[in-house]
Amino acid sequence: MSRRLTWRQRMARRLDPTIAEMPAHRVIEAAPATTAAAPPPPPEERAQDIWPAICEQFALRILASAYQMGTHLEAIEADEQDADRLEKLYRIDHATTRIRRQAENLQVLLGRRVEDADPQATPLVDVIRAATSAIEYYPRVHIGHVVDLAVTEYAADDIIRVLTELLDNATRFSPPTASVIVSAYITEHGSVLLRVEDSGLGIKPDLLPTLNTMLSGGGAPPLDGNPASHLGLVVVARLAMANQLRIHLTNRQSGGTTASVLIPDGLLCELAPAGRPAPGGASLAPPPRPQAAHRQPEPNVTYLGSAQMPPSHLTLINGQPSDDGDRPARREPVSSSNNHSNNGGGTSGNGLPKRVRESLRDAGSVNGFAPAAQPSSTPQPRTSPESEADRQAWVDETAEFAAGFSDFATGDVSTNGTDLPWSAPTENPEGNPR
Amino acid sequence: MATSHWKVRPYVLTGGRTRTRRHLLVHTLVSVPYYDAVFAAGLLPEARTLYENARDTKSVAELSACSGMSLGVTRVVVDDLAASDRLVVHADAYSSPFDFRLLERLRDGLRQLA
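^ Those are the sequences you sent over. The predicted structure of the assembly is below.
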C-alpha cells in the first residue's frame, strides 16, 4: 500500500509540480478502495489545465538558452579566421538556430505569442534568408525575384516562421539534389505573394484539400499514420490565422508542389534605401531600383532542374546575368521602368497607410519618435490620451530603444521641452550618465 | 555593424562554405574591373554593397567593414565574385605585407586619426 502511494505521488509530481505538496494519504484514507483502481480525477484535471503553461515554461527556457548561445556564437564567428573552425562554428550555429525555431513553434502551438527579440521592419529578402537559416537543407534554397518591400515589425517574425516551415517541407520532401526556389511578387492589390516551388513528389491528391482547408483555418490536421509529416503545416495554419495570411498548396502538373503565401498589404511597408542607412537627405533620394519588376513570366520548371549555380547565395536568380545566359530571367530588368510605375500606381490607388519613403531604420525601431524632423511633437499625441501610468509603462518599455529619449519624455510633462530632444536630458542630472 | 536581420545567419550568406579558392588576406586589394549596374542590381544586398564599394580599389578588411559582413563571409563572397571575373584580386598585394600601397594607405589612415 505504501509503495503504491509513493508511486502515485511521484506521478502527480511528474504531471504537475504544483501539487507536489498535496497530502496524498488523506485522499487514500477518504476512499481507499476506489483510488486503488483509478487515480482521483481532480489532480488529473488540474494537470490538464496547467499542462500548456508548463510546456510554455520549457519553451521559454529553451529559447533563452538558444538566444544566449546565439549571442556567443555570433561573437566567435566574427573573429574566427580559420576556415575549418569557422565551418564547425557554422554547424553549431545552424543547430542552435533550429533549436530556437522548434522552441518558437512549440510556443505557437500552445497558442502563445512569441516575443520577438528584436522587432524591426524586415525586407522580404531578409525574411527569406532568415527563414532559410532555420531549415536543415538551407544550401538548396535559391532566391528568385524578390520585390523591394519590407514586412512591418510586428508581423515579420511570424512570416519568417511561416516561410521557415514551408521551406522546410519543400526541401525535406524533394530530391536531395533539387533546388527549391522562393520568390516574392507584388500583386495588383498591393499585397505580396510569396511562392515556394519544389520539385518533389508532391502531396497526395486526396490529402491536398484537407491540408488546404486546415491552412485556411478550418478543421484539424488530417489523421493519417505519420503525424510528423504535417508538423510544420500545423504551425503555419496557426500563424496564418493570426496574421490573416492566405496560404495555399498546389501540386503542379509538371511535378512538384507550390506553396503560396499571400501577405496582406497592411503587413507591408516600403523599404529603406538599399546600402548604407544614409542620414538625412540622402535617404529621400529615389533609390536606383532597376530590379523592381512588377509582373514577369512565371519562374517555371524549366530552370528548376538546373540546380548548380555557383554564386547562388549571392544573387537573386532572376537578376543574375552572369553565367547562365540561357535563362529566361535575363530579360527582366529591361521591363523595369513601366513596372515601377505600375507598382506605384497600385499602391496609391489603394491609399495604403504604411507606405513611407523615409528611412525605416530610424523611425521603425523607436516607434513614435520621429528621427529628426519633428521630435518634440510626435510623442505628444501618443501619450496625451493615455493615463499617467500607461504612459510611464510605455516609456519604460521603449527605454532600451530610445535610450537617451526616455528622460526627455518625462521632462516633456513638466513643459520645459522646448529644446531639441537630445539636449533635454543633459539638463536633467539623471540624463548625464548616458 | 549588422545590416541584415539578426535571424539571417552568416552561413546562409555563403551557402555554408568557408574556404576560398585563392588566398585572401585582410590587406589583399580588390577592385571591380568594369562596373555592371545590371549585375549589381541582381546581387543580394550585402554583396551589392561590397561590389559597389569595390569600384575603387579596397582591401578585404575594408570591404568587410562597409558591407557589414564578417571577414570570413566577406572572403567567400569576394572569392565568388572574383571567380566569375566580377572582381579582380590584385596578386602583388599578397606577395608581401609590406606593400607600398598598403603602407601608403596605412599612413593616410593614421594621419586621419591624428
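Residues 81 and 109 of chain B are 27 Å apart (CA to CA). The beta strands of chain B are 29-31, 58-59, 88-89.

Shout if you want it in another format.
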